[in-house]
UniProtKB/TrEMBL annotation:
Species of provenance: Cellvibrio mixtus
Catalytic activities: The enzyme specifically hydrolyzes (1->4)-beta-D-galactosidic linkages in type I arabinogalactans
Enzyme class, broadest EC rank: hydrolase
Keywords associated with the record: Glycosidase, Hydrolase, Signal
Pfam families: Glyco_hydro_53
The UniProt record lists the keyword Transcription: no
Lineage top rank: taxon: Bacteria
EC code(s) of this entry: 3.2.1.89
Protein name, UniProt field: Arabinogalactan endo-beta-1,4-galactanase
InterPro entries xref list: GH, Glyco_hydro_53
Length: 369
């Protein structure tokens, strides 16, 4: 009898970990820059024909579009609620599911900085700040819903390795104050859950950490501090900034799934197809980004993506989302220069009129190993 019970428990555990057959394997792209790039004159081509980028990605097989949202970015008119709404609408109109990425900041957030929106900077009480976060998240989802742009998935924070909603002059990069951090994260999570229930529209919740090695300790601490009600572990995976090389990634995915009974989705990755720079903006991905067996060529980029995709899929991951494959070079400015800091890592050849690259094979099921 004890052996039968052991077998039953094993089968039940396998059933919990297995991805539901109806759940798609996500092959996605973050297209948050597209509206701005088009306003700056960018054009995208496939087989010498100009294409709407959302329709192009959908036709190539993409099934998820990720969209970032800043609170009140007074330094740009993009990635605010109006712009994010437009992006979500375009993605949905093209037949793809959507993932909304709340940065909870007026600017970029990442493992080095999580700056509180200026409008909330005067709030020192954690309970009051948590309520403000809840109200903002709820109102944002309601507004999106009114415009037929409600996302299918929501990230409560972006690369939240460190504590969220920090003041710039008091930034702490170490282990979060979990009493405060858990209260804030759970408030955002509850807002999404409550709105999903109220609207009777399913929304999956993603918590996002940069690099798999950091996710292992972060989710352990989050669990110990009561951050439990989410659906998906989201990871940024950039080999040059990770201690995990490609062959090690499957073990991290399996460990996270086993330990926390959550799906694992790579929500950011990228790889260069060239080391050339086509404008005055310094590129983020240079020589240090190049991995063994994957040269910085169109074929090398595609090979990296197909390898990553298949490793994630065979290890039980939920999918892979490529970060900003349409952030091409234009005459517009960023905070750091004129042009794009990413044109050598897009899916469009900057040296050949932004023609589609072999990287689009990433979205094709025909290339499964």
């Amino acid at each position: 009898m004890k052996y039968s019970m052991a077998i039953l428990l094993c089968l039940l555990n396998h059933m919990v970990l297995a991805t539901d057959a109806s759940t798609p394997f996500y092959l996605g792209a973050d297209l948050s820059y597209v509206n701005e790039m088009e306003d700056c004159g960018a054009k995208y081509y496939d087989n010498s024909k100009r294409q709407d980028p959302f329709i192009l990605f959908a036709n190539k097989g993409a099934n998820l579009i990720r969209v970032r949202l800043w609170h009140n970015p007074d330094w740009t008119r993009y990635s605010n609620l109006a712009d994010a709404t437009k992006t979500l609408q375009r993605a949905k109109a093209s037949g793809m599911k959507t993932l909304l990425d709340f940065h909870y900041s007026d600017t970029w957030t990442d493992p080095e900085k999580q700056f509180i929106p200026k409008a909330w900077a005067h709030i020192s009480d954690t309970g009051e700040l948590a309520q403000t976060l809840y109200d903002y998240t709820t109102q944002t989802l309601a507004t999106l819903d009114e415009h037929n742009a409600l996302p299918d998935l929501v990230q409560v924070g972006n690369e939240t390795n460190i504590e969220i909603l920090q003041h710039e002059d008091k930034l702490v990069k170490g282990i979060p104050d979990w009493s405060r951090n858990a209260t804030l994260l759970n408030s955002g999570i509850k807002a999404v859950r409550d709105y999903s229930k109220k609207s009777n529209k399913p929304i999956q919740i993603v918590l996002h950490i940069a690099q798999p090695e950091n996710a292992l300790w972060w989710f352990k601490q989050a669990t110990e501090n009561g951050v439990l009600d989410y659906d998906i572990i989201g990871l940024s995976y950039y080999p040059q900034w990770s201690t995990y090389q490609l062959p090690q990634l499957p073990n991290a995915i399996k460990t996270l799934k086993q330990n926390y009974q959550k799906d694992v989705l790579i929500v950011e990755t990228a790889y260069p197809y060239t080391l050339n720079n086509f404008d005055k903006a310094a590129n983020v991905l240079g020589k240090t980004a190049i991995q063994r067996n994957f040269p910085a060529t169109p074929k090398g980029q595609a090979s990296y993506l197909l390898t990553l995709r298949n490793l994630v899929k065979t290890s039980g991951g939920l999918g892979v989302v490529y970060w900003e494959p349409a952030w091409v070079s234009t005459k517009c400015k960023t905070l750091w220069g004129t042009g794009s800091h990413w044109e050598n890592a897009t899916f469009f050849d900057a040296g050949n009129g932004n023609k589609a690259l072999p990287a689009f094979l990433f979205f094709s099921n025909k290339n499964d190993n």
